[in-house]
């Protein structure tokens, strides 16, 4: 078997070795080497070549095509449903701000603030009054939350330092940093005047940290009926905060809410067409099977649950097939490594080893895992076990993105499209090294800009905004406003800002970005030259180039035996 090692030496000297010149002493060894070579070459064939070689149907390819279609349909369906949920939550948040915040206008919410003690009491009184007049004011279907037969009250709380004596005129103070709180519950049907309430609730302005008002409102999202979906019931926990932690004379007022989505206890939809009636009939047949897994499920189980289950089954099959292919590739890699070590006394380089582990299969495995997880979460959302649309969106979005990226694998079978994949693969290590070096310079500019320009420029107030601003400058976006909005209160800092911005733009746009493009361009030219020359560039390619058998030659077909059916199933 020593003669097989000459194959590599022959290619190193740019001569095409003849297999007859390296005939092993034993014919069975030659057959073993040829069998290994054909096995590896068959592994790297595309689905069309494998069909001609062994008549193997391209099941994985067909499955991926079907999977792309159904997963995209699932994503679009979930996206439309999620869009209605997001719109309903955002519109309710805006409604609450207009209902409960005095003189609120649709501007930047960070600009809404009060500056006088009387205004604090006026705003609190306004909120309490509007809460009691909810039924008369709202144009929506909002309602108070009930605990049994009693309405849940509005809770008014203030947080303040336990003790404190502050004298700015004499520049002295004494403060106890422990935080105390006072709370007061106000029921919506309470006839007590807000003026009387303030007799028992005095705001300690000198020590005040915050005033918080919390209440719960309920609503039903009826817009889903028009889209042939059953409405959900929403619990909005509204938080109104008067923030005085800075003690600067400006109390910022913010209104936010937490949303809990629940299944409505009882519902009846008429005039919505045959769809909901059919969904209810089929759901009743599936209810007994699904109810054991989802105890909260009821009439609102949709046909989409069955569709999601179909996607899960499809992804599980795809996951199993791709995992089997990865395992088969690892086994071939180990077999090839043992052959090289035994016959040639050389270790297979990692670049050749990684060729056996297809990154596309790994990508499909990750995609299937994400899609299965997202589909399970989607089923739980539809059955009202979970209400976290964001987590489900991340899983389904990433899964669909990876599925579509996986299509590029089949585009790579065409020679003109394959050069893009080869360029990305070859340039990736150099690009990562280049980004690491450029990233260090980028971080240095971020830290410097944050500490020096932060007090004078809005875009440099935090590390996050600094990074976003500098990244926009690299792309040539928002460049003039960044220069213009720099405050000129300090001449030294203003001059520094000009030097800072000019050097950053010049360094990254004219030098670093150009070098980055050059790396990819050089890699593209190298790959293009290799494709034109047609010479094998790796030891593995040299080993396989000796085998000139075409897929249609018939030498790749498995030998028939009594257990042919079992062997065919295993090899497929």
TrEMBL record:
Q: Name one GO molecular function term.
A: NAADP-sensitive calcium-release channel activity
**Spans through the membrane:** 301-327, 359-379, 391-411, 431-453, 499-520
- What keywords appear on the UniProt entry? Cell membrane, Disulfide bond, Endosome, Ion channel, Ion transport, Membrane, Transmembrane, Transmembrane helix, Transport
The keyword Transmembrane helix appears for this protein: yes
Q: Does the keyword Transmembrane apply?
A: yes
Where's the Mucolipin extracytosolic domain? 85-265
- Cellular localisation: Cell membrane; Endosome membrane
Give the Gene3D superfamilies listed for this entry: 1.10.287.70
Per the record, what are the reactions this protein catalyses? Ca(2+)(in) = Ca(2+)(out)
Taxonomically, which superkingdom? Eukaryota
Domain named Polycystin cation channel PKD1/PKD2: residues? 385-527
Q: Name one GO cellular component term.
A: plasma membrane
Topology in membrane: Multi-pass membrane protein
Q: Which InterPro entries match?
A: MCLN_ECD, Mucolipin, PKD1_2_channel
Instruction: Give the protein name, as stated in the record.
Output: Mucolipin-3
Q: Which organism is it from?
A: Oryzias melastigma
């Amino acid at each position: 078997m020593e003669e097989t090692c000459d194959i590599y030496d022959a290619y190193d000297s740019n001569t095409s070795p003849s297999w007859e010149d390296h005939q092993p002493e034993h014919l069975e060894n030659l057959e073993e080497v040829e069998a290994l070579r054909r096995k590896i070459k068959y592994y790297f064939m595309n689905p069309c070549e494998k069909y001609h070689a062994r008549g193997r149907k391209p099941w994985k390819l067909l499955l991926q095509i079907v999977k792309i279609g159904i997963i995209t349909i699932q994503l679009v369906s979930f996206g439309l449903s999620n869009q209605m949920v997001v719109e309903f939550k955002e519109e309710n948040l805006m409604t609450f701000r207009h209902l409960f915040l005095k003189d609120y206008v649709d501007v930047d919410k960070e600009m809404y603030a009060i500056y006088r003690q009387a205004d604090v009491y006026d705003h609190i009184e306004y909120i309490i009054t509007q809460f009691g007049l909810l039924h008369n004011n709202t144009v929506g279907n909002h309602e108070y939350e009930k605990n049994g037969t009693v309405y849940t009250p509005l809770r008014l709380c203030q947080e303040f330092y336990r003790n404190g004596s502050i004298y700015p005129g004499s520049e002295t103070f004494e403060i106890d940093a422990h935080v105390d709180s006072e709370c007061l519950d106000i029921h919506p049907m309470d006839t007590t005047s807000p003026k009387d309430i303030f007799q028992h609730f005095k705001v300690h302005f000198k020590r005040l940290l915050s005033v918080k008002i919390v209440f719960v409102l309920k609503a039903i999202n009826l817009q889903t009926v028009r889209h042939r979906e059953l409405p959900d019931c929403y619990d909005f926990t509204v938080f109104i905060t008067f923030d005085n932690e800075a003690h600067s004379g400006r109390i910022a007022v913010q209104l936010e809410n937490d949303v809990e989505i629940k299944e409505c206890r009882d519902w009846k939809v008429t005039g919505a067409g045959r769809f909901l009636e059919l969904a209810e009939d089929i759901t009743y047949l599936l209810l007994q099977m699904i109810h054991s897994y989802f105890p909260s499920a009821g009439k609102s189980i949709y046909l989409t649950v069955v569709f999601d289950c179909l996607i899960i089954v499809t992804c599980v099959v795809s996951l199993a097939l791709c995992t089997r292919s990865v395992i088969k590739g690892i086994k071939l890699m180990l077999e090839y490594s043992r052959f090289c070590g035994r016959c040639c006394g050389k270790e297979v380089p990692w670049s050749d080893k990684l060729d056996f582990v297809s990154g596309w299969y790994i990508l499909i495995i990750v995609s299937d895992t994400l899609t299965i997880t997202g589909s399970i979460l989607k089923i739980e959302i539809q059955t009202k076990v979970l209400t976290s649309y964001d987590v489900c969106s991340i899983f389904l979005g990433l899964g669909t993105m990876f599925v579509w990226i996986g299509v590029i694998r089949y585009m790579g079978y065409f020679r003109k499209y394959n050069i893009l994949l080869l360029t990305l693969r070859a340039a990736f290590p150099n690009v990562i090294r280049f980004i690491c070096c450029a990233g260090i310079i980028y971080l240095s500019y971020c830290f410097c800009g944050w500490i020096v320009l932060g007090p004078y420029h809005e875009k440099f107030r935090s590390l996050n905004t600094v990074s976003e601003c500098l990244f926009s400058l690299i792309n040539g976006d928002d460049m003039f406003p960044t220069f213009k909005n720099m405050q000129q209160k300090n001449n030294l800092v203003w001059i520094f800002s000009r030097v800072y911005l000019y050097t950053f733009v010049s360094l990254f746009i004219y030098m670093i970005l150009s070098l980055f493009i050059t790396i990819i361009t050089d890699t593209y030219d190298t790959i293009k030259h290799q494709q034109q020359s047609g010479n094998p560039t790796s030891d593995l390619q040299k080993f396989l180039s000796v085998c000139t058998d075409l897929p249609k030659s018939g030498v790749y077909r498995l030998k028939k035996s009594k257990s042919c059916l079992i062997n065919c199933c295993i090899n497929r």
